[in-house]
Each structure stands twice: as C-alpha cells, then as structure tokens.
UniProtKB/TrEMBL annotation:
Coiled coil: none
GO biological process terms, semicolon-separated: copper ion import; intracellular iron ion homeostasis; iron ion transport
High-level lineage: Eukaryota, Fungi, Dikarya, Ascomycota, Pezizomycotina
Protein family per UniProt: Belongs to the ferric reductase (FRE) family.
Protein name: FAD-binding FR-type domain-containing protein
Residues annotated as transmembrane: 51-73, 253-271
Any GO MF annotation of the entry: ferric-chelate reductase activity
Protein keywords: Electron transport, Ion transport, Membrane, Oxidoreductase, Transmembrane, Transmembrane helix, Transport
Localization in the cell: Membrane
PANTHER family attached to this UniProt entry: FERRIC/CUPRIC REDUCTASE TRANSMEMBRANE COMPONENT (PTHR32361), PUTATIVE (AFU_ORTHOLOGUE AFUA_1G14340)-RELATED (PTHR32361:SF12)
Domain FAD-binding FR-type: 336-513
Record's bilayer topology term: Multi-pass membrane protein
Gene3D superfamilies in the cross-refs: Nucleotide-binding domain of ferredoxin-NADP reductase (FNR) module
InterPro entries hit by this protein: FAD-bd_8 (IPR013112), FAD-bd_FR_type (IPR017927), Fe3_Rdtase_TM_dom (IPR013130), Fe_red_NAD-bd_6 (IPR013121), Ferric/Cupric_Reductase (IPR051410), FNR_nucleotide-bd (IPR039261)
Length: 666
C-alpha cells in the first residue's frame, strides 16, 4: 500500500487562532482504526485540557496568595513588636507569651515539624560514600503529596468507557502533554537563584530547590507517559516500522523523542547519590541537558503548530532574563575601570579551613544572615559555590588624610593596650597553631584578618554609598574547589595566596532578628559564619537603641579548639564592643578536646565546655529567663540542626518562639 504523506491529510483538526496541527510525518496504514489517533488532536479533549491547566494554575496562585498573606501578617507583627519594644526591655512582657492556642500548635505540628519524629536535614546514608539526601518537612510533604495527587488525578479524569481504546490513549497523550509543558514553568522558575518569589514570600532558595526537584520529576513522568501513549497508537497502526518512519520523516516527533530521552538522562543523573557524589560535574552537565531538553520541546511544539508553545517560550524567557541579571550584577560589583577585577586573598587556617577575603571593585549591600556564591576561576573554572558571609566591612577607596591617620593611630594604640587584658576567644593551645602550621616565626606572620579587621575600622552595617566593600568567607576544606584552595594556600611559605574572582549575591537574610527580645544562635562547625554577622549586627543595633534585643546567646559546637581560629579576629572585635557584657553570652562546646586543660574560659560571659551541645537543655533554661519574644536560628550539620529544631518544638507552645534554619541541602 502506498504511503500517505502529511500534506495530503485533510482531517487535521484546527486550533482556534493557531491553524492545523502539522509535521506528523509519513503515515503508512491509514485504514487501521488506530491511525487517526497517532497524530494531531483526534481523540484529544482540548477543552478539558485547558480546564485542568487553569485549575493547576489557580492552585499555584492560591498557594502563593496564602503564603504571601501569612508572610505579611508575620512581618507586620514583627514590625509592630519592634516599634513597641525598641531599645528597652520593660515593655516586652506582653510579647513573651502566645495569645492563642491554635497558632503555636500549627507551628509545632506542621510548620516546624519534620516528616517523622526528628530527622529532617540529617542525610540518609546508605554507606559512607552513598547518600540519598534528606527528608522534607511535614508541611512540605503535604504540599508535595497534594501536588502529585492533583497531577495524577488530572491525567486520570477522562472517558474510560470509549469503545475504541486508541481514542482513550490519545486523550491521555494530550492530557499528559499539556500538563508536562505547564509544569515546566514552575520547574524552571523554582530553580533560579534570583526567583522573584524568594524576596516576595521570604521563602528560602533551599525550599524552592526542593519543589524544583519534585516539579521536574512530575514533568519527566508526564513526558514519559505522553511518549508511551504516542508509541502505543503508532505500534497499533503500523508496527515498529511506523514508529521509525514517523521519527525519520517528522522533525516534531524527532525532537520530541530527543527531549524525552534527555529528560530521562536528567532524571538518572539527578538522583541523590549521583548528585552528591559528583556535584560540580552534575551542575554543569545538568544545565546543558536541560537546555537541550527545552530546545527539543520548543521545536516539537513549534513544528507541530501546537498552542502550548508560549509556555516553553516563557520558561526560556525566565531563564535567559535571570542569567542576564546575574551576569550584570556580577560584572557591576566585581569589575570596574578604576579598580579592575575583584581581588581575593586566601589565608590558610588551622583545622583545614581558609579565610577568603574578596576586595570588591564596587560597593555592595550586606544583610545579616545572607550568603553569596563565590567564583574562583583558577580553582573551579566557571562553577560557583554558596557560602555564608562571615564578615563584611567598608574600606575607603582613597588613602586617609593626615588628620584621620593621627586619629586612627591613637585609636589603635588604645585598642592594642586594652587587648592585653581584655576578653579573647584564644585558648592555650590555639595561640601557636597559626604559626606552627605555616612553618614561619611569629614575628614574620601578619594575617590578613589582623591587618584589615581592626576594631576602629570594622563596620558591618554597610551604607549604600560605601566606596568599596570587603567580604570575608570561611571555607572548610572538603573536596573539589575547597580542597584545592586549602592545599594551595597551606603550601605557600606565608600561608596566604592572592587570586582573582567574583561573588554573586547577596541571597537570603530575610530576617534581621532585631524584633526579638531574646536571640539564640546555634552554630555547628563552619556554620559559625552565619551567626557572627548576626551577633555583630545585633550588638550595633543594641548600642544604637534601635533593636528590641536585650539578650543574645551564641552557642557554637566545634570539634577542637583549633577551629576557634576561624573567627577569632572577628569575635575579639565583638567582645571589645561597648555594652557587650550586658547583652551577649557565648557558649563553646568542644566535642573532641585533646585534654581537659585545653578547654578554658577567659571571662564569665564566654564559657567553654567539653563534649556535645544539648540544645534541649539550653533552650529550656533560656525559656525561663527570656526577655520578650525569642528567636532561634541554626546553621550547621543536619543532625545538629535537627536537634535544635526538636528543642524549639518542645517549647513553642510555652511562649512566643520563632525558628529559622539556614541550610544548603543541594
């Protein structure tokens, strides 16, 4: 039988305003009952497809509206509390307590609750080398289940009583195709670092990244079902030969198949064990594969003249606009004709870490609790990695005048004289570590932090018109870029190296914590970088009388005292601040001390303990002595963060307590 070509087919159903469906290749057996359902919109219920697409869109918008309403109420409450209690503790008694039983129970049982008993951000390890990721929270799980169930329901709501099974398959093909393309929009949007919903809703990128992964899995599932349905009808119409001919003679089908296969590879390479084992490689390959898949979907829809094409155009538009915005910000803050490219100083520290200081080319806006993505091309090419900002300060672009130099000299002399008997984070065994590690005599070493972070010059409350900004990070050596960086710096005779690069950000930092009368900051290991900026910011606001905060407790769990060197210069600066003893206490827990005499405390407000931290005991004690509302934040390993979350949930019904977790569960 002679084949019939696409141009000779008269019965392709037209779409309003879009014309007929085209480019479905050569048809071999047009007398078979399944043949009409192998192409075009025969058997596809377009009216129902549009209805379910609108329902899915309305569901997303309703969730966004509810979240936005909750955030506005929460921010309004914090703002009123801040105005009524700013700079004093007498009026904070009202804000200590919950004024309803409903909302504290919602926070305990839903918003702050892990999926099970306690595990949330603690990774599930199949072995030391294989991790399958973390568990979503209870609230996120409910949202994901509703999302998955609604997509499955939308696919299954069709007329299953049709006598011709091929028409049922065709309807399922059309439904899954429509939903797959529509779900591409949140999949791409939620993956963007500069997703506009993040600052609008005050929801972390980590949460959107979780939803991105599940939206992508739904898209891949629906794309697979869509392709299978087309293959089933094509096989019934003309066998495997019809499938091969259709792919060979139709550009739309060919690129649709390319897109489906690419999505399958994306799914396999995105599995948690693979993603975590080869994360830097995964990111680069993932972006290339997704671009190929989007191009395939675009050509598939464009050649067939299908009405879902604007959805893909919107996805590509989001992605391109975000990349243009990111590149523009990176270039603006990290390159200028006067100062050139951002200069980076890397200083090796004890306990296998580096202090990395970025001297930016232009001013940069800092917020407490924020993080940046660091680019170091000499060590990681174009890849970037997220790090919390440990310290930020202004540096004048031009040298100071002679009068300013005299004032600075007298101020530094007074600080140096005071530092001999003032509080310090230094322990008995940590004094030697920086010099002995470098292999140089003490008088030849002047660390970058000691030179640049003098008490008289530090300013972490950055004005918008700052001439230049210096941003410091602490990078713990693990694998990949951080390991290369530490090895290169520690091998240097002076323990420091200089390079060039850029930072991108800031991201996060949605709550300054200044509206809480009591603030508790938990840090595990290098998570201290998230908390140091908060402590300094709160102290500055306390001194200025513009914060409600009257009590600050910093709890830091470290494996050994050498890790104290990571932030020593900055913490010494904070410990010398006026009024520090009235508001700030620090508790250090050294989990693996070499001997008991190593763990000492120089002042009553800086306490050191051997062993592990017990967040439950600390929070219960602070609840009895709190002033006003209490805010608790944590940044550290997953198991440590989960224990802090559990401790907060135990007391959330006893008083006004809010919990904020900083996590990078990529």
């Amino acid at each position: 039988m002679a084949p019939r070509f696409a141009d000779a087919l008269p019965d392709a159903l037209p779409l309003p305003g879009h014309g007929p469906v085209t480019d479905f290749g050569t048809l071999l057996n047009y007398t078979n009952d399944a043949e009409p359902y192998t192409h075009g919109l025969e058997g596809v219920d377009q009216s129902a497809n549009w209805v379910f697409a609108k329902v899915l869109f309305v569901s997303f918008m309703a969730l966004l509206a509810i979240t936005l309403g909750y955030r506005w109420v929460h921010m309004g409450t914090m703002h009123i509390r801040h105005l009524m209690t700013m700079g004093r503790w007498e009026g904070q008694r009202y804000w200590m307590y919950n004024h309803s039983h409903f909302w504290p129970r919602v926070k305990k049982s839903l918003l702050y609750a892990p999926l099970g008993h306690q595990r949330h951000n603690r990774e599930i390890q199949l072995s030391k080398a294989v991790s399958i990721g973390t568990l979503p929270s209870r609230f996120h799980t409910i949202l994901l289940v509703l999302y998955l169930a609604s997509n499955i329901a939308y696919c299954l709501v069709q007329n299953w009583s049709r006598s011709n099974s091929s028409s049922v398959v065709a309807e399922l093909r059309g439904r899954t195709g429509m939903l797959a393309v529509l779900n591409l929009i949140p999949t791409v949007l939620f993956a963007l670092r500069n997703n506009p919903l993040i600052p609008l809703l005050k929801v972390s990128y980590d949460t959107f990244n979780l939803f991105h992964r599940w939206c992508a899995r739904v898209v891949i599932f629906e794309v697979t079902v869509h392709t299978i349905c087309w293959g089933v009808n094509s096989l019934n119409a003309g066998g495997l030969y019809q499938v091969r001919v259709s792919l060979a003679t139709s550009t739309s089908y060919l690129w649709g198949m390319v897109s489906m296969c690419t999505f399958a590879v994306v799914f396999l390479t995105g599995l948690s064990p693979v993603r975590h084992a080869f994360y830097e490689t995964f990111l680069n390959v993932h972006r290339l594969l997704v671009w190929l898949a989007l191009v395939g979907v675009y050509i598939h829809l464009d050649k067939a003249n299908l009405p879902q094409l604007p959805y893909v155009q919107l996805c590509i538009g989001f992605w391109l606009a975000e990349w243009v915005w990111r590149i523009s910000r990176i270039c603006y803050h990290n390159a200028s004709r006067q100062r050139g490219i951002t200069k980076i100083t890397v200083e090796a520290l004890p306990a296998e870490a580096c202090r990395v200081t970025f001297d930016l080319s232009r001013s940069w806006r800092w917020k407490p609790g924020c993080h940046v993505h660091a680019y170091l091309p000499q060590f990681a090419l174009w890849s970037s990695h997220p790090f919390s900002i440990a310290w930020a300060e202004n540096r004048p672009r031009s040298p100071p005048l002679e009068m300013e130099m005299e004032k600075m000299a007298s101020l530094n002399n007074s600080v140096n004289n005071h530092s001999t008997d003032g509080p310090s984070m230094v322990t008995r065994d940590s004094m030697y570590s920086r010099h002995s590690m470098m292999g140089a005599p003490p008088h030849t070493i002047a660390t970058i932090a000691e030179v640049t972070h003098k008490a008289g010059r530090a300013n972490i409350a950055l004005p918008r018109d700052a001439a230049c900004t210096s941003v410091s990070l602490v990078m713990r050596a693990r694998t990949g870029m951080t390991r290369k960086l530490y090895d290169k710096a520690s091998a240097s005779p002076t323990g420091t190296i200089t390079t060039w690069g850029a930072i991108e950000g800031p991201y996060g930092g949605h709550d300054s914590m200044t509206s809480y009368g009591t603030v508790i900051l938990f840090a595990g290991g290098v998570g201290i970088t998230h908390c140091v900026g908060y402590v300094h910011h709160l102290m500055l606001q306390y001194q200025a009388g513009t914060a409600s905060t009257q009590k600050i407790l910093l709890v830091w769990s470290v494996p050994n005292t050498e890790a104290l060197e990571w932030v020593r210069v900055w913490m010494d600066n904070i410990l010398r601040m006026e009024g520090r003893r009235d508001v700030l206490r620090i508790q250090l827990f050294v989990t693996k001390p070499r001997h008991r005499g190593e763990v000492i405390s120089n002042t009553g407000s800086v306490q050191m303990f051997p062993g592990r931290c017990n967040p439950n005991t600390i929070i219960e004690k602070e609840m009895q002595e709190r002033i006003g509302a209490m805010g608790v934040t944590v940044c550290g390993p997953g198991a440590f963060a989960d224990s802090v979350r559990a401790a907060v949930r135990n007391v959330v019904t006893e008083g006004a307590v809010d919990f904020v977790e900083e996590a990078f569960t990529y």
